[in-house]
Amino acid sequence: MRIDHTIKTPAKRMARLGILLGIIFVLSLLESVIVLPFMPPHFRLGLANIVIMFVLLSYGKWTAFLFVGLKAAFVLVTRGVMAGSFSLVGGMLAVLIIVLIVKIEKQQQIGLAAIGIIGAVFHNLGQFLVFMVWLAFMDMEILMFVYYVPVLIITGIIAGFLTGTLLKILMPILNRL
């Protein structure tokens, strides 16, 4: 599922990508201060991932991977190594799985809510893998945290549905940038 954008000059394309990257940084920073008391600890809606999904659908997988890396670098600088590694691995895994699923589906019958759910669940699972590696390096018990996987899947479904739905709503605005 790729959205056709006819941007006439490389300068306009670069300016548009710069604006989108700025939006990602602002949303990422904003999200780091929003605490949702009714959700599990460290839960985030993934608002910046709305723009990552848009970039994936509009500019392709390589630009999306680049944006994930740039977002992770921003998170690294603003929130530290652990948060940066969570962002990088979770984001890369999410984009990779979305690309594979969209390719398998041959761009048919997969909606934005489904893409959001797939991305969010695999983003959470990627972050969980990073957490397991961190625990292993600290010689801590890993299996005691496996119970958290269903929570990550359920919250991923909720957040992914919301971000996919928001992308559908915001698509006309993002297309006009």
What helical percentage do the residues reach?
Answer: over 70%
Average pLDDT metric: 86
Largest sheet: none
Total E-strand runs = 0
Q: Work out the strand percent.
A: under 5%
CATH-level-2 architecture: Orthogonal Bundle
Q: Given the helix and strand composition, which structural class is it?
A: mainly alpha
- Spans of at least 5 consecutive residues whose pLDDT stays below 50 are none
CATH class: Mainly Alpha
The CA-CA distance between the termini, in Å, is 20 Å
| Number of helices, where a helix is a run of at least 4 consecutive DSSP H or I residues | 6
Taking Cα atoms only, what radius of gyration do you get, to the nearest Å? 16 Å
CATH topology (fold) name:
Arp2/3 complex 21 kDa subunit ARPC3
